[in-house]
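Fill-in record for peptidylprolyl isomerase.
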Amino acid sequence: MMLLIPFAYAVKYEARLEDGTVISKFDGVEFTVSDGYFCPALSKAVKTMKKGEKVLLTVKPQYGFGENGRAHSGNEGAVPPNASVLIELELVSWKTVSEVTKDKKVMKKILKEGEYINVLMMGLLSKFGGLMVPVKLIGRLQDGTIFLKKGHDEDEPFEFKTDEEQVIDGLDRAVLTMKKGEVALVTIAPEYAYSSTESTQDLAVVPPNSTVNYEVELVSFEKDKESWDMNNAEKIEAAGKKKEEGNASFNVGKYAKASMKYEKAAKFIEYDSSFSEEEKKQSKVLKATCNLNNAACKLKLKDYKEAVKLCSKVCMFILASDICGSLHVMVYVWMHA
């Protein structure tokens, strides 16, 4: 679940002492209420303001710099102890900032609002998940170096499928929270980006342990075809493809991801009452294969109880079949698992 946190506010302000001495002035600065800026009064005031509004704040010491005041620092003037401060403040704009992950290591700031339902909700409405999302991307390092640019300068939008590990985890998670037409700035910590490895991208190298920023525009999205919109052959084909995706994840040690793939594959052919005899045979083999492979995943994940359940499903399938057919199926399953 995406957690909303205080807005990012862009302001202009000039602060001075009661004798007219200017102690701070900025023609454009951005901050969040949770982080604060300059003095506590600024964060409290912007929450009551409208875009474009200008106000004059009289700030008492308890909402300014208190009984200790503040020493001179760089271009910022000193504030005497127990001094009141006058602040001319203009709210230029504000943007929604959200925590994509609970540990705040993937943060999203909306630069342009989108429309209608977001990708995550579309994914929830899709029984099997996975949405094709065309996006425009600009990836930057913290120093501003552009390492990736896709979908701009008349190029076709970059397309990827969510929840398929086709992009870094943080970007995948962030796009799931976006709406059609939305433009957002996503800041991704190394744990959800390229981790401790160096990554060579189109325009530059991302050094190990880098926090990266992506400017993302979600052009549109399209959900996968639902099983009830498929004919029998399409269901069997979709199940087979999902099983192969599970095999690929299993082979590189991503057992939780593989388990999810096998579960999705089995769901495509969960109901086979309308299948022909040949289609039923194919679907039973596929279901048995997926359950056995999923059981192997559960063993790797030390989820022994679930592994037993999955194996039991296969045993029940065998018992429900004729003996010769069962032996044939078991040999076939183990050969193709």
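KEY FINDING: Helices lie at 40-46, 119-125, 169-175, 232-251, 255-268, 277-300, 304-319, 323-336.
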